[in-house]
Amino acid sequence: MVGSRSNTSAVPPKLELRDVALRYFGREGETEALRGISLSIAAGEFVAIIGQSGCGKSTLLSLISGILRPTGGAVLIDGRPVAGPSRKVGYMLQQDYLFEWRTILENAVLGAEIQGLDMAAARQRATALLTRYGLGQFLNHRPRQLSGGMRQRVALARTLVTEPDIVLLDEPFSALDSQTRLALADEVADILRRERKTAILVTHDIGEAIGMAERVIVLSRRPGQVKSDRPIRFATPNGARLSPLAARGTPEFNGYFNTLWQELEVHVEG
After folding, report:
1. Gap between the Cα atoms of 119 and 110, Å rounded
2. For 168-212, what is each residue's pLDDT tens digit?
3. Alpha carbon 247 to chain centroid distance?
4. Pairing mode, if any, of strands 198-202 and 215-219?
5. Which of 11, 49, 93, 102 is the most interior residue, by most CB within 10 Å?
6. 3-state class (DSSP) for residue 192
7. What's the distance, Cα to Cα, between the start and end of the chain in Å?
8. Rounded to the nearest 5°, which phi and psi values hold at 106?
9. What burial class does residue 220 get, using C-beta atoms within 10 Å of its C-beta: 0-12 exposed, 13-18 middle, 19+ buried?
């Protein structure tokens, strides 16, 4: 069934959406944003969501994070309904939102500070993460002294310092030039897999989705519904995962790209 993925494993899904719907009211009346979204995502899985502007991609992330509540259906993490924002979910936005009056290290521990976590442990983890990401010598610098790609690495470190199980990525590379975007996509995908995080990427870039994710979900026009849910596999020794950049050079990449493009085009023309 399109829009749902059965889970035959004995291991329960990390994240599950059951017939999720969202309606909201504005000056022009009621708007149906999402309808009947059913998905199952395993622990450690990397999933991308694509679709036309306004189809509800970012709204879906807000529901998963607990910022919004569905008007129908349920969102569950580890089998429990999401009732609000949780430490289990980290959110990396389009902009880095680093504060210029704080150092890089101080920015990286901001989430831990807001959540009231052990700050000594948070600073230790932030220092380790930033050093691992090549920013160890910039701990006491200000954000304006860093390039766009470096700033996004700081934003990722800030997201991971609180040790979430699930990381939501809402077009985190959209403000970067194409070369930096490709390089950072490689880095972020590698980091999240090494950290064994469950990741959900929202993007307008089909190639980015194919290169980074193990599954690509296509949403229809509003009200957003699951048009397709496609596994992404490349012919590699021992089933090894390719980097996003290497994936673009494979024969499979063009096939996936054309299929997903056509699925998006149906909604442009229809």
Report:
1. 10
2. 999 888 877 788 888 888 888 888 888 899 999 999 999 999 999
3. 19
4. unpaired
5. 49
6. helix
7. 22
8. -65, -35
9. buried
Instruction: Report how far apart, in Å, the C-alpha atoms of 22 and of each of 57, 80, 93, 114, 212 are.
Output: 12, 19, 21, 29, 28
Integer Cα distance of 197 and 192 in angstroms: 5
Do residues 225 and 181 lie in contact, with contact meaning Cβ atoms separated by under 8 Å? no
Q: What is the phi/psi pair of residue 83, to 5°?
A: -110, -5
Which residues are within 8 A (CB) of 209 and not within 5 positions of it... i.e. 6 or more apart?
A: 48, 49, 50, 201, 203, 216, 260
Whole-angstrom Cα distance, residue 217 to residue 149?
26
3-state secondary structure of 50: strand
- For the record, the structure tokens of 50 come out as 């694509």
Q: Dihedral of CA 258/263/268/270: which sign? A: positive
| 8 Å CB contact between 173 and 148 | no
Residues 6+ apart with CB under 8 A from 242: 211, 234, 236, 250
